[in-house]
Amino acid sequence: MAAKLRRVLMRSAASAMRHAKPAEWHYGPGFDAARAARQHQAFAELVAASGAEVEWLTDDDDGLADSVFTHDPSLVTEQGAIILAMGKALRRSEPALHESAYARMGVPILGRIEFPGSVEGGDCVWVDRQTLAIGRGVRTNEAGIGQMADLLRPLGVDVFGYDLPLWHGEDACLHLMSVISPLADDLALVHAPLLPTAFYQMLRRRGITLIEGDADEFRDSFGLSLNVLPTAPREVIAVAGFPKTAAAMEAAGCRVQTFEADALCIACEGGPTCLTRPVLRA
Ligand SMILES: NC(=O)NCCC[C@H](N)C(=O)O
């Protein structure tokens, strides 16, 4: 999940978020559509400057505000994309946008998660090429995890499900990727108090070094201080304003770039990883 980012699917916030009502989408008072669009553009420039090729979802005024969080409606394997099924009702039509983009890009579709199963991309963490960890919580359920295991078994991939806590409740967004950001094959940023214990133990057994993000910054940012995108091993993009978490990553040899994201990320419960669906890392 932290190899060099080559190709990535994104969606501009300019149209998608333009008319979003915070109360409907569970966004905080800091949400501001025009500011979010500017912050998204600054983030996209950092991603492009890393050398990644950015593929854009169609920029429609379709009212799908959360569709800017392209990490969640699909997952990409070495044999093609898996079209997911969203746990958040307002996001149910987003996977079709991804399917159209993959058709245009020539990326084959390996399979689909079907309701009543649900899996969101933010709950999926590749521990290595043959091991996928999935958080079971308000967005991803047991039926979805079972379907994912069936789709990936022929590829020799083992799928492990881990229970997530409820934390801020059913309407809030807590994915497995909310409590871990891989930074290199052997390095991850974590908020250990919310990590599923068996997942923590698996990471430790594999010798992955775990950096603790600052707990106060995690609380104050509603978890977004921890949501960090690697564009290459130890080359990361993070939300500005969390110096202790950034310093912990720098102490582990990471180069940290930041962008202002109060209106886009902190208000809307999604950070740099959530704004990107990596299609190719190598
Ligand atoms: N992977 C992620 O953590 N995605 C964040 C999605 C935020 C969006 N507002 C949601 O509630 O789905």
From TrEMBL:
Biochemical pathway: Amino-acid degradation; L-arginine degradation via ADI pathway; carbamoyl phosphate from L-arginine: step 1/2
Catalytic activity from the UniProt record: L-arginine + H2O = L-citrulline + NH4(+)
Gene3D superfamilies with a match to the protein in the record: L-arginine/glycine Amidinotransferase, Chain A (3.75.10.10)
Domain of life: Bacteria
A UniProt-annotated Pfam family: ADI
SUPFAM superfamilies, per the entry: Pentein
Enzyme class: hydrolase
EC identifiers of the protein: 3.5.3.6
Protein name: arginine deiminase
Originating species: Mesorhizobium marinum
